[in-house]
Amino acid sequence: MTATVGTRVVHKRYVPYAHAHYAGNLVDGAYSLGLFGDVATELCIVTDGDEGLFASYSDVQFKAPVRAGDVLEVTAELVRAGTRSRVMDFAVHVVARGAATDAQPGRAEVLDPPLLATTATGTVVVPS
After folding, report:
1. Element housing 35 (H / E)
2. CB 34 within 8 Å of CB 15
3. pLDDT tens figures, 36-75
């Protein structure tokens, strides 16, 4: 297996209402970081045949809220491959959002374009 710069992994996830922590059904920022761990794990499996271990984040930016009822697209892209380290760029986009009304409590809408909610750069270490 070869860690090829530009390799990308995408997950989609519905945010359950049980994860809301704040008014307005807001989800805490750690939710996005947990998702970054998931896509980083898959990316390491794809590129190195090992889950790897997250070492650090060099940048995290919360750009828009994530809410319960959102559908998220989470991406990881390999941007640098060292002997054992893998530097990845991460993003969370909200691709759909709940839009409940009294008449339609389960109403939701696709966001076009998707809303960029969280970005990060992180380093994962894999065995040599």
Report:
1. helix 30-48
2. no
3. 999 999 999 999 999 999 999 999 999 999 999 999 999 9
- What are the pLDDT digits (tens) for 100-120? 889 999 899 999 999 999 999
For every residue of 70-124, DSSP letters joined together read -EEEEEEEEEEE-SSEEEEEEEEEEEEEE---SS-TT-EEEEEEEEEEEEEEEEE
Instruction: Give the SS3 label for residue 67.
Output: strand
∠30-31-36 over CA atoms, to 5°? 90
Q: How many C-beta atoms lie closer than 10 Å to residue 109's C-beta?
A: 9
pLDDT for 1 beyond 70: no
pTM value is: 0.94
Distance from C-alpha of 22 to C-alpha of 119, rounded to nearest angstrom: 21
Rounded CA separation 57/17 (Å): 27
